[in-house]
Each structure stands twice: as structure tokens, then as C-alpha cells.
Amino acid sequence: MEAPKLLLLFLLIRCDLFIGKSLGDGVTPQEAKELRDEVREMFYHAFNGYMDHAFPRDELRPLSCGGEDTLGGYALTLIDSLDTLALLGDKERFTASVEWIGKNLRFDINKTVSIFETTIRVLGGLISAHLIASDHNTGMRIPSYDDELLHLAEDLARRMLPAFDTPTGIPFGSVNLLHGVDEHESKITSTAGGGTLTLEFGILSRLTNDPIFEQVAKNAVRGLWARRSKINLVGAHIDVFSGDWTQKDAGIGTSIDSFYEYLLKAYLLFGDEEYLFIFQEAYKAAMKYLFNDPWYVEVNMNSAALVWPLFNSLQAFWPGLQVLAGDIEPAIRTHAAFFSVWRRYGFTPEGFNLATLSVQQGQKSYPLRPELIESTYWLYKATRDPRYLDAGRDMLASLQYGARCTCGYCHISDVEFHKQEDHMESFFLAETVKYLWLLFDLAAGPDNLVENGPYKYIFSTEGHLLPATPQISLVREHCSYFGAYCRNSNLRLKTHSHESAETNSSGSQTRPADSSFLSRSSYQSSSPVSGLKGLCPGLTHGQRFGISFMTPVDPSSEDEQSSQRETTEIQSHSVVLISNPNPEVSLSGSHNDHENDPAHAPQEESPSSKQRR
Ligand SMILES: *[C@@H]1O[C@H](CO)[C@@H](O)[C@H](O)[C@H]1NC(C)=O
Ligand SMILES: *[C@@H]1O[C@H](CO)[C@@H](O)[C@H](O)[C@H]1NC(C)=O
């Protein structure tokens, strides 16, 4: 790994030059407003293009102004755009869209679809929109709304359940929505494919009172983690029957990325410490074996031997995840390195070879991905360093000059020649535009659901807003895991009026006597913490608010026996400690002691990343 390291140094120097230059012309609050409004216009250019030319097909063909079905043929881009509409405050279009979907969408269709894509785009889109439309606290409640989207989500998730019927618990990659798993379906799936379902499925269990969804998703994570290597790395592809890894390259990008993301976020949203422990071990190993400061490489999961010295554009979500975990220093360096690649080409290519410092053959495209923008938003939020606004302005300019086309925004098929291609993935509106808008709105003095709303929000890997409502956040497990005592053992979780309507849906009568997370033994209705009603009184502030602060790992204390020492390590130095939420994201108004310490991270969530898009 020496050779690439030297060359990387060279690249880094160049990127420092770029940054030095852009620091000079900072973005003023007024300019941030203008940029935010430009992003809004960008959204409508693409959204209206989709509605006029592609709807109800899945995605827009922005050059030829037509539509194409890319997933299930069910208005994918509209579903993926719902919470962006709400975030932008467009009540009229949000309402009309939710109503159309409630009336017209059906999943009893003979289509074989990806479990991963369907979960993050469709299930996540429906759930986030449901939680906005059904809740007056969001300011976007739809009076006529009667849980149509929740019922659709539940129906869809049930149609995916047959995929989880495997010896390992890791689901097949695809399922037919009408017939279950196809006879000749591949038994090979990616780590991200099996490990990126916990948020959507977990929320669905809490909203429907049926534990099955959460159980299968958690079981899949356990199935993957149980097959980790001795050095706590996971591979890229696995056989869901034998549990053998068929592709042993460990990395943080393609095929694995959001596995890491959902471990941390599932902990943050549900307070389930099992996910935190796995994340801590997985994160430590990633930083030890994959981090080649400031880049990340792919190594063999068993031997840690270098396989690919390659920047992969999906890796760009990682600095954002590190912000959530509180590990800001390496995030800053890595973001700067990744952004230097963007600056060099105007976009990030799917692959950039760190040994030759050139675009990787066959990986020249930029399909409008959000990851670098997403990390830029998180780093700006954590540091308020104006360099991130400059970076955002650069990326916006690239999209406007390079990707804007007749009816929307076009993929770039080759970042060296900026050739446009006739596709616009639905995640452009779900994520890319959303994070850009959030970045500039934050700089302008935010007024939106995420920054000023009634709940702490976790972003799914598709950028969907998942609120930590009392019903969703795991009140009881917080209490039991943290050893806090909680009384009121037979109190039901009090839900907001309209959210309780679905407690009678299928499964509720037959659910197991103690379906762990659903027996809300610990609910404390009198808690003064307004944002998260129901927190148990015995928790410290940090415990209540989830996250988490990491200090840089002290290399001298790292060794191979980490697994045996996990508990003490957690407390002594490395990875996530339970402390210090960032004041502006703590929803309750109760502030913490470190609010002005930039080294401490904000505690909610967000990154996203797409395994194999
Ligand atoms: C489902 O679709 C497949 C492939 O498109 C087709 O062969 C099959 O006959 C269809 N089944 C039904 C019940 O429509
Ligand atoms: C709940 O389900 C039971 C049994 O299916 C049914 O009899 C009852 O009417 C339902 N209650 C509500 C409020 O829907």
C-alpha cells in the first residue's frame, strides 16, 4: 500500500490548493438564500418534467422527455419525491400526490423486484410520507388522509417476506410481488442488500404492531454479522443458503456501504444497543483495515491484503456517517480528498483509480448520485465551516451546467467529456436535491421540518425522513439496555391520535406474548422531554438523545483482541460513546454541556448510499 499512499499525497496537495482558493469567496447568508431557491427551482424543473412526461412510469427520460419503468412500474419517482415535496413546504402537491398514490397504487402485480431497492425507495418513501401526512405536528397533515400509504407499505412488505425464508435469514436479492421468490432466483446477494432493511422494516413493525418485519430484518443483519471474518470485516456478496462469501472484498463502497450506515442509524432511531455494538466493532475494523488516510481501499476480508486501490463514488457517504458517529477529524480529510476528485472532473466518476490517479476504465459515469453532497451537508452542520458551502455551490454549478437537460437532469456517462445520458434516477429528487437544499437552507437560517421540526429525524439511505416519534423510538429497550428502571409496566405506548388507528391491523391479535420491542413496559407518559415523550427518567441526557461521540482511535491501544475488550474500549476511547448531542438537533430544548464544542457531533442521522446502483 506504500505506492498508492505516496501518489495520494500528491493528489491531496492539489486538493488543498482548490480549497485554499475557494475559501476566499465565502457564501453570505443572502447568497445562501439565493442558492437554496435555485435548488428549489432545480427540483421543480425535474419534478415537473417527470410529472408531465413520465408519470406514472417509474422514471423520467430527461433528454427524450419520456418515461421508463425501472423497478415495478408504480410511479417510483413520485413515491420517492413525496417527502421532498413536504420538506419544501409544497402542501398542495404533497397532498395531491399522496391522494393519487392512495387511490391508484397496487402491489398485487406480477413483477420481480429488488428487495433492497424496493425497501429503500418505495417502502421508505411510503412510510416517510405516511408519517408526515398523518401527523399534525408536521404542519403537513392531510385532513382526508386515512392511512392509505401505511396500508400500502404493509401490503408491500408482506409481499417481500417470502424472500427471508432462507437458512441464513439473509434474504434473496429479489422477490416476485405476486408469487414469492422465483424458482430460479439467484442465491447470491450483497451485504448491503441484506443489511439495509432495518429502519424501514423496524418502523413498519412499530406502526402496525406486528413484530414480523423487524424480526426478519434484524435476523438478516445477525446472519451477515455472524459470518464476518476474524478481523471483523464483511465481504461484498454472500450465498444466502450456504452462508459462504462469494465475493470477499471488504470495503465501505459498492455492495456494502449502507450495511454500516444502518447499523448506526438503527441504533439511533430505535435505541437498540445490539446494533450499536455491531457498529462499533465493524467501524473499528473498517478504520483499521480499510482507511488509508484519507482514502479508503478494498481489502480481502480475511487477510486484509489490498485488493483495489480505488475510490468508489458510493464511498462518499462515509464522512457523513462519521459525523453522526462523532468522528469528525477523519471525515474532514476524507471529504476534502473526495471533493478534490469532484473538482478535477466537475463530477465524481463511479471509480477513480488511486494508483494511476485517473478515472477507472468502465467506471466513468456520474449518475446524479447524492453521497458527496450528503456528506457536505453533514460536515457543514457539524463544523459550520464555510468551505462546505463553497463545495455545495460548486456541486450545484456542476449540476446546472453539466447535467441540466431538456426535461430534467441527465446522467453523465463520462465525467471527462460531460456527455449526457437519457436517465434520471428517482434518488436525484429523493436525495441529491434534498441534501443540497438542506445545506443552503441551513446556511440561510433554517426553517424546515428537519432542522426545526417536532422530531429528531433520521435519514434513510434513500434520504427519506424517518422521525423519532415516541411510537417509533424504542422506549422500552432504551430503558432496559441502559439499566434505567422504568415502572408502569402495563402502559401502552401512547400514540398520537391518528397514529393509533392501525393497531388493529393484521398480526395484532396473534402476536407473540412477548414480542420484545412491542411490549412497552417502560413507557413513562409523564416525561418532561417533549420531543421524545416516553423516555425513561433514569437515562442521562446523552442516552436519551442517542448519540454519541467518538474520539480518534488511539493506535497504540488497537490490537487483535478487540472483541474481548469491547466493553472497556467503548468506554475508554474509540468509537461511539454515549454523550453529547448537538443542541440544535436535540429536539427538546434541553441543552447539553458541550454545545459550542465543534469537535462534538450532531446526533442525528443521515447518509445514504446505494449498494450496487
Ligand atoms: C408473470 O410474469 C411472467 C414473466 O413475465 C409470466 O411468464 C407469467 O406467466 C406471469 N404469471 C402470471 C400469473 O401472470
Ligand atoms: C379489530 O379487529 C377485530 C377482529 O378482527 C374486529 O372485530 C374489530 O372490529 C376491529 N376493531 C377496529 C377498531 O377496527
UniProtKB/TrEMBL annotation:
Mind listing the UniProt keywords for this protein, alphabetically?
Calcium, Endoplasmic reticulum, Glycoprotein, Glycosidase, Hydrolase, Metal-binding, Signal
Q: Where is the active site?
A: E117 (proton donor), D257, E350 (proton donor), E371
Which InterPro entries has this protein been placed in? 6hp_glycosidase-like_sf, EDEM1/2/3, Glyco_hydro_47, Seven-hairpin_glycosidases
Name the GO cellular-component terms: endoplasmic reticulum quality control compartment; membrane
**Which sites bind Ca(2+)?**
T461
Matching SUPFAM superfamilies: Seven-hairpin glycosidases
Biological processes per GO annotation: carbohydrate metabolic process; endoplasmic reticulum mannose trimming
Question: Which Pfam families would you find in this protein's record?
Answer: Glyco_hydro_47
Report the GO molecular function annotations.
Answer: calcium ion binding; mannosyl-oligosaccharide 1,2-alpha-mannosidase activity
Instruction: Tell me the first and last residues of the signal peptide.
Output: 1-24
As recorded in UniProt, its EC number(s) are: 3.2.1.-
Primary site of residence: endoplasmic reticulum
Leading EC class: hydrolase
Q: Segment Disordered: which positions?
A: 497-522, 546-613
User: Which portions of the chain have biased composition (kind: Polar residues)?
Assistant: 502-513, 569-590
Which cofactor(s) are needed, names only? Answer: Ca(2+)
Entry similarity comment: Belongs to the glycosyl hydrolase 47 family.
Q: What protein name is recorded for this chain?
A: alpha-1,2-Mannosidase
